[in-house]
Each structure stands twice: as structure tokens, then as C-alpha cells.
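Sorry to interrupt, but I need a hand with the structure work. Please put the record directly below this note.
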Amino acid sequence: MYTKKEHEERYNEQLNYINEHFNISSYEPKYLCKTKHDGWECFHWQIDMSNFGIKKTKYHTIDYYTGIGHVYKNSKNPIPPLPFGVLNNLYTDSSATEQAFDDWCGEFGYDTDSRKGLQLYLDCQKSWNDIVKCFPELKNLKDHACITEY
């Protein structure tokens, strides 16, 4: 795990990168609470991203969850998710837009007869399509190994 200083350095490096390559000018993780999500004990975050465009500012908010081991060294305080981790997660979700449902289920271990699996598949598609509307440059995310292999 990181110290606060190490995290801040990584955060700033990654923020500069996503601003330069994807026109994401603001990335703000807000800690909401410690919770259980689908039976998993975790930290719940709200990630606000924006693009301060010339004609129009665009905003996008994501609910994001991290495991309870994501805390600062020698502390119990949760570490805010870094931009590359969140974008990597969105990139993984984007596979639902490029695969048939049966193939997607096979890759991620879901039953093709599962309503929950189908809903997750549809949610992943919606999430990716929504964020690409705000940040069209993310369509080229696959070309950025520093994020997709994060």
C-alpha cells in the first residue's frame, strides 16, 4: 500500500496523463462509506469526472467500490481510487459492447441463463456508452497499455 505522499504523487501523474490523452480535466473521488455490495465488504466511492470544454462542460459520475484492504500504510483510512484503476475497470466493462452475451458470460464466468448476468452485461454496456458520450477520446483506451494493463 501507499503512504499518502506516494499516493498523491501517483494520483497527480495519472491525472496529468488522463487530462492530456482523454481530455478529462477533473477527476474527484469522494468516499461515501464502508458497506457490503453483493455480499462483498468494501469501500464505496463516487467518482466525479468532468471535461471543461470550450462549448460545454461535460460531467460523468461513477459508483466505484474498492476492497477493505485499500488503506494507507499504517492506517485504516481508505485510499482513494487512482484514475488508471478506474479507467481500467471501465475498459474491462467495455468488452460487453464488443462481445455477444454468451461470449461475455464465458469470459467472466456468468451463466447464460442468469438474469443477474444479463443485467450486469447490459449495465456494462450502458456505463461504457454513457462515459464515451462525455469523453469520446476514451474510445482509444485500448491503445494505452499503461491503463489497460494496470
